[in-house]
Amino acid sequence: MIYVANDHAGYKLAMALYEKMLMKYLNVYHLGCASTVSTDYPLFAHRVAEQMKAFESNRGILVCGTGIGMAMAANRHSHIRAALCERTGQARLARQHNNANVLCLSGNRLTLEDAWPIVKSFLFTDADEDERHKRRRRMLNES
What we know:
Layout: E1 2-6, H1 11-23, E2 28-30, H2 41-51, E3 59-64, H3 68-74, E4 82-84, H4 88-98, E5 102-106, H5 112-123, H6 131-140
Parallel strand pairs: 1-2, 1-3, 3-5, 4-5
Helix pairs in contact: 1-5, 2-3, 4-5
């Protein structure tokens, strides 16, 4: 399952991505706000994080004005590895090296044409199983 959520500033981009994923027959569920009326982004990041507890294979896409707030809120959850990406290479490496399970995007800086290749890179890249990357991912959970 792919969970998509947004605040008011990410509404336009998130809905465009959601609709595009539906048209591509991806298993996607919208958990964000449904308008451009001002909302609090942490509510939506936490909503996605809560839903992602069930299965390790779930992915999330969070969109707010900059993507920064969503990333910070999502990463408060120990099972979430959220990455703010503005390029396909960043999304690919976030998946390969860090096994990121949440992609954060800027609704103010990205268009659908900019964001869709980033989303595809995030969704269709697997984590690298090389021992050095696995070791580093384990270190992320150490206190």
